[in-house]
Amino acid sequence: MEAHAQVVLPCRELSETLGFFTDRLGFRVDAIYPADDPSVAVVSGHGLRVELRRGGEGAPGVVRLVMKNPAAFAGGASELVAPNGTRIEIVDADPPLVVPKVKPSFVLSENGDRAEWGAGRAGMRYRDLVPDRQGGSFIASHIQIPGGGPVPDYVHFHKVRFQMIYCYKGWVRVVYEDQGPPFVMQAGDCVLQPPRIRHRVLECSPGLEVIEVGSPANHETFADHDLPLPTSDVDPGRSFGGQRFVRHVAASAAWKPFRLEGFECRDTGIAAATSGVASVRVARPRGNPASKRYRHDTEFLFAFVLSGSLTLDVDDRGSRPIAEGTALVLPAASLYSLGDCSPDLEILEVALPAEFETVSS
User: Fold this and answer.
1) What CATH topology corresponds to 252-360?
2) Cut 0.70: pTM above it
3) Would you say domain 115-247 falls under CATH 1.10.150.530?
4) Cα distances (Å, whole numbers) of residue 321 to 108, 221, 309, 314
């Protein structure tokens, strides 16, 4: 017999609990003993193996059955209680993605000695750039891998509305489902990770830093242990949840006029690939930008200062200096102006949705 694992659940009377698992939940009996007075039964079903032990000790526990069509199971019940007290939760295997209603706020997240970094997945360090998460609708992270070399990642995907990665410093080698062989993202490059696209981080330079922006804030990451990457099929135009993969290479990008007067930008192409769900641009001053006040009517406008410096005035509270590594969220109700832009200033801007109105005064 192959090695396996099974959960042990105690019960006062075996026959009644065994009948519940087999008749009500559809488990099958794999073993039962002793024959003359059974005290142990092993049942399996729904990918789970359970040992029911009469007179056993411990809590009755919780069994969560993850179903493709939970409404058609057990009369549509969402929760049942077995005779031994085990709570049975019946949940949807792929529930709809819920994006909380945005709660707009002004956010200023500065880098430096006071910045808090936490340990994340696969040896990565995370700095939360939007601590209030705008009510749970958005997350933005500054991510580092200090040591470089091979990354202990695995093939995985995210259940998201939107997610992008911008390579801020260093380089990283990655691979994506149906997008051909692994490739290297250099500083300034950007990718759109469409919903559920399988991918893996392979290796990186020492001191790698990336900026990741996603929605919703609390989204699930799933491992895919069965799909090898790269895939044999190559389909760059494939749709993943209505979005296409984007690889933006900074070295070959063209600069075009930006929505703010006196600025130009390189557009990553994410607006087109998401059908307007989001836009991602890098902006820089062109000459000496005029001092104007702006407001916008978009749901979420995020900015990260990639290099250089500027001053920012929000709602006439007075100008404050903004340095490299600072992240901002400017809510639609705010009136803001940019000044004292250094010649090397570059700003990463992420907006959801992509199409929005900019008003100047």
Assistant:
1) Jelly Rolls (2.60.120)
2) yes
3) no
4) 11, 37, 7, 12
